[in-house]
Amino acid sequence: MAILVIEDDPKTGDYLRKGLRESGYAVDLARNGADGLHMALEQDYDLVVLDVMLPGLDGWQVMSALRSKRDLPVLFLTARDHVDDRIRGLQLGADDYLVKPFSFTELVLRIRTLLRRGVTREAEVYEIADLQLDHVRHKVTRQGVNIALTNKEFMLLHLLIKRQGEALSRSVIASQIWDMNFDSDTNVVDVAIKRLRAKIDAPFDKKLIHTVRSVGYMFSEEP
User: Fold this and answer.
1) Contact by Cβ (8 Å): 151, 177
2) Which domain holds residue 165?
3) Same domain flag for 108 and 162
C-alpha cells in the first residue's frame, strides 16, 4: 500500500515517513501543498495524510482540488482542533480527521480502517459507452463481444478507465504498468497503446482511447 504524506514541518514529516515505512507502507513525502497535489494527481496512492497549514496551497485547497479529480482516502492530520475546522474538512471530502499531538498507534489504526474501506470503493465492473470491464473476472467486452487481452493490456486498460477523463502522461503509465521510469527513447507505452487500440477501438465506430498531444493518453467517451 502506498501513502502520500503532505506535511511541511520537517520533524513531523520525517517522523511520519519513517514510522509508516516501518509499519509496512510505501511512503512519499511532500513538504508543501503544490508539490503534494501534483504527486497525488500524477501517481497512484492508496491514501493521503494531509496537513492543513501548508505553505502555498493550504490543506483545504489541496483537498478541494484533489476531490475534483480523484477519489481516494484522505486523512487530515492537523493542529487545528476547532469543531468548525473538522466540519469543513469532512465537508470538503476528507475521510477522517486527527488532531495533533496524536498517538502514532491511533494514526496507524485509522489508516488501516480507511484502507480497508478504500478497497471496497474499487468498482468490480466498469461500464463506459458500450465497453464493460469486469475487474474481478478479468474480462472485457464491447457491444457484448469478448475481447482477449494480455495481462499488461488489461492492466493498461484498467488504469485508463479508472482515471477516465484524465490525460495520463507516458511516465505515469510506465511507472504504474511496468514499474519503470519512462525513458524518452523507449516507445513501450506507445506500442502498448497501439496494440490495445487495435483490440478496443479499431473494430468499432466510437473511439475511446485518445491521444493528448505533448502529454500522453486519455480514456473518454468524448473525442
Assistant:
1) no
2) 125-219
3) no
Q: Looking at the structure, tell me whether residues 151 and 206 fall in a common domain.
A: yes
Same domain, residue pair 93 and 42: yes
Q: Which triple of cell numbers denotes residue 46?
A: 492508496
Q: Where are the alpha helices (DSSP H) in 71-187?
A: 83-91, 104-121, 151-162, 170-177
Instruction: Tell me the three cell numbers of residue 194.
Output: 497501439
- The three grid cell numbers given for residue 109, joined into one nine-digit string: 489504526
pLDDT digits (tens, 9 = 90+) for 106-142: 999 999 988 887 544 456 689 999 999 987 678 999 9
- List the one residue out of 18, 21, 15 whose CA is nearest residue 1: 21
Q: Which of 87, 91, 22 is nearest to 3 (CA)?
A: 22
Helix (H, G, I), strand (E, B) or coil at 187: coil
Whether 109 and 146 map to the same domain: the answer is no
Angle of CA points 134, 205, 173, to nearest 5°: 50
Q: Residue 127 — φ and ψ, nearest 5°?
A: -125, 115
Give the count of beta carbons closer than 10 Å to the beta carbon of residue 158.
19
Q: Tell me the pTM.
A: 0.54
